[in-house]
Fold this sequence. Notes:
The protein has helices at 3-18, 224-227, 236-243; strands spanning 40-50, 63-74, 79-90, 96-111, 116-127, 135-147, 151-163, 172-182, 187-197, 210-221, 249-259, 267-276. The protein is built from 3 helices and 12 strands; from the N terminus they run H-E-E-E-E-E-E-E-E-E-E-H-H-E-E. The protein has one domain: monomeric porin ompg (Porin, Beta Barrel), CATH 2.40.160. The chain is 10% helix and 52% strand. It is globular, with a radius of gyration of 19 Å. By secondary structure, it is mostly beta strands.
Amino acid sequence: MTLLLRATLLVAVLLLAAWPPRPAYAQLNVQSPGVTKGEWEVETHSTFQTGLPRTDADDGPPVRQGHELEIGYGVTDFWQFELGMTAQRPVDGSFEASGIEFENTFELGTIPRWSATFALFATLALGVGGADDPDAAELGPIVQFGDDKSGSLILNGFFEKTFGENRDKGLGFEYAAQLRLPLAGKFALGAELFGEIEDIDNAPSFEDTELRAGPMLYLSFGDDDDKAKGKPGDDDKDKSLKSGGKDPEIEIGAGVLLGATDATPDYTFKCDFEITF
Length: 277
């Protein structure tokens, strides 16, 4: 294992340990369609929720905090695999592991005149520890319009089916969106939206579904040297091969999401960290 990879993993573990009382759960994360062969990714996603809605006794206590650690690798120029570990802290409860995730992103292609990239996302999540989360499989499309330099819009729509001892009835649907506009320097301003319908075959009223949205601020750095490598006109996937590797790129995103329905926490504070190399 290279020194860089060891240092990256250490930073990710320290971030998990340093966030308020060491927590996590299934995180609010917008999936991107881009895949780069040979590229490593280490990500952490953290949330803290306040103004929690009331829940039924059968559903257990609501989650106050959540964390997720993901490590991914571009296996080919169209397939990226990620291994994720989640944990959570319910209200008046202690920190507990909640699941292991096996995620796959398959980049399908682009439409240049629309500046659009399409991908298929498939994941298998296995509930572990004391959280009693069910096992689940998710499948759905990812679409991105634009890019980080000029502005982008990413859309996610995933169907979810739970199975195992704690499975839920019906077919669920999760959707997410991210709008991002670059500012001066390394900053970008944006907004993110997350929603969930637990059973689309027996959809509840709008107020009984989860929906939250709010502003985000992004900071990215570490890619200036990489832009100068390779020949003019090379795309990002070829540069790393011609230069013998790429410098690490770091991105940090933080913001607050406001609940729009009775079933959604009033405020969700969100922080993401990602390093690619």
